[in-house]
Amino acid sequence: MRDVADAVGVSVKTVSNVVNATGQVGDETARRVRAAIEELGYRPNPLARGLNARSTDMVTLALPGLGHGYCAQLAAEVFALAEADGVSVVMEPTGGDRERELEVLRNRGGLSDGVLLMPASVTARDLEGLAFPAPAVMLGPRRVRGPFDGVASRDADAAESAVRLLLDRGAERIVLLGGEREPGGDSPAALRSAGYRRALAAAGREAAPDLVAGTAASSREDGHAAIRGLLDDGVRFDAVLALEDPLAHGALHALRAAGFGVPRQVRVAAFSNDDDAAYSVPGLTTVTADIRSMARRALDLLASRVLNSAGPRFHVDVPFTIIERESTFSYA
């Protein structure tokens, strides 16, 4: 639909109006739109058709916030793909609060035709026996089984692969920066911590307690303070796996200030591939989920559920990629 709009020089909404015979579009403009549709071989997207059959042509995107790189990337992809489908997106920050997440799922007032929710606090038990007026898709690292479809990133597997990369590069003692000291749970930090432990166990090693550096938040300041603290305590390490890119940026700064070379003395890897990862010094090796695929699959699942609320629920995993940069390179 975006390609058709660009070819004709009109808005996506105008193309949507022609396709769905809604709104006021002049005869000449409509003719040009139809000609472009024929020339480009456009076929209406099921998301737009599913939602246009209802009332609002809107979906709600509910995220814990936008300060986090993962959330910001996901929001950008959802907005771009939905706009191309001729659908509007209503943003609903939840702050990760359980009651606010449930309120979004209740869709009070029928503000949208469906909900995309990244759950931070709500659990499958919270959803048992409750009736929800609009379809929803859960997306993000946490897998919440319940009456909704889900699209998840494989965070535990991704962390395991990142640790294997560090081990293959010669690392012996790997700091888990921002990690969980106790196994269990399904938060992103818990899942990534589980992958870290799994990779060490597969290599015949234990996760040393002094190498798990928890942080209050995921900022540069937190990463800097945690690594500075390890160095002050005399903890030996030759690699860092930071559970968020900002933590890694802070770690790089702390290591550089303490005179440690990266990657010659300490290798550093992280998660999310934020905008600074490629431009840090050295460039930061980072793990990233296929956020665009997550957004596309979630929108398509929501469209299918709008059209057919019955049937089995689908839970889809999206792939991840390790983007290796200078921070983990090997040197002879």
TrEMBL record:
Keywords: DNA-binding, Transcription, Transcription regulation. Transmembrane segments: none annotated. Pfam families: LacI, Peripla_BP_3. CDD domains: HTH_LacI, PBP1_LacI_sugar_binding-like. This is LacI family DNA-binding transcriptional regulator. Gene3D superfamilies: 3.40.50.2300, lambda repressor-like DNA-binding domains. GO terms for molecular function: DNA-binding transcription factor activity; transcription cis-regulatory region binding. Residues 1-53 form the HTH lacI-type domain.
